[in-house]
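pasting for ref
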Amino acid sequence: MTIRYVFLLLGFSSIFFSSCAQKSTSSIPSTIKKDKEMIQKEGLETATLGAGCFWCVEAVFQELKGVHSVVSGYTGGDIDFPNYKQITTGLTGHAEVAQLKFDPKIISFEEILEVFWSTHDPTTLNRQGYDVGTQYRSAIFYETEKQKVIAEKSKKEVATELWNDPIVTEITALGDFYKAEDYHQNYYTNNPNQGYCRAVINPKMEKFRKRFKDKLKTEEDYNIEEQKKNEKIYKTDAEWKAQLDEMQYYVLREQGTERAFTGKYWDNKKEGTYNCAGCKLPLFSSKTKFKSGTGWPSFYEPLEAKNVESEKDTSYGMVRSEVHCARCGGHLGHVFDDGPKPTGLRYCINSVSLDFEEEKP
């Protein structure tokens, strides 16, 4: 039994417990060609590290200057598309890991490994504290031969300087990486008062911030990251076709419309957020969704006004207000003035233009 389950039994983590009770959805491999091309284009590199619970690892590396993103996930196992329930058995061979995208011009792989060795115990086999199992093993999954050489040298020199006992960290080539379920992402930031976060992650973060104070992101760094999130996205038709399926491309990029009552979200009653299928920008909340009887998802207002733009549409001999994503320009649907209070508006949106992110209980 891991310490996270101890907190569940004690009642400290009702949010996480409810999430585990849900049916887990299959993760999607991140080994997609277009993703790698984007990383190369921006000059970023990838580091995939296992150091116990991925909530802890994610929390640490998110605060490092030069780290652009951190995704919690699974790798190193024997089955495809694992889910969290399978991982917790310790029988799939996967490790809980955090995959970093970092700028080597700002922070080197050697520096990242220095933080890695300092923020977990690499001398305990298949265990970090009370979290026990092969899924919690200490591991470096290298992507290139250069990373392998650096990792082995760092293990021999840096790690042995920090720890007296033998280092048991696995150094192996990265295979398929599977992103963990949405409720695991950005967990410490989203759930600071959860029992495990208070008891385990808080002390770790205090030590980390004190030791690596000079490597932490500044307020300016965070502001720049936020600005980049809101920057408009421009892609060629070929790039969009490579990313989207045929129906998504038809609706998002060619202003098409799906047939009424055929989309997967028109009658969706679950709580959560509807994001743009093209760029993942949050667009609508289930709290503003209503039953319009039209056969398309309908909302009386967007999540944030700035995320949705509209323009005059005179196609098919009608005058309407077309709605599109403010970040990528993807066609979403139309807005009408026959909606319910308090706005009186009806945002009539194509399901295929949306990705639904279910709210954590």
